[in-house]
Design brief:
Alpha-Beta Plaits, four-stranded antiparallel beta sheet, 28% helix, 75 residues, single chain, 39% strand
């Protein structure tokens, strides 16, 4: 069960859109910062293949500027 945490940086003026985009994705939990344009993204997928597909889908979001992994754990 891969579990990862990321810092997700939105494109300019797209923080709310990035929150919406990530919130509807399965296996994602989003926590926005109150004072910065950054989000904490937690992912918890059932297997490696699902994790790879999820990360690729996240990277394709137009509202996302960059994604930085801060922690990763796999069984």
């Amino acid at each position: 069960m891969p579990i990862f945490s990321f810092l997700a940086y939105p494109e300019n003026s797209m923080k709310d859109q990035l929150i919406k985009d990530l919130s509807v994705m399965q296996y994602c939990e989003v926590k926005p910062s109150d004072n910065k344009d950054v989000l904490i993204l937690l992912t918890d997928t059932p297997d490696e293949e699902t994790n790879k597909d999820l990360i690729n889908n996240i990277k394709d979001l137009a509202s996302l500027q960059s994604l930085s992994m801060t922690f990763g754990h796999t069984d």
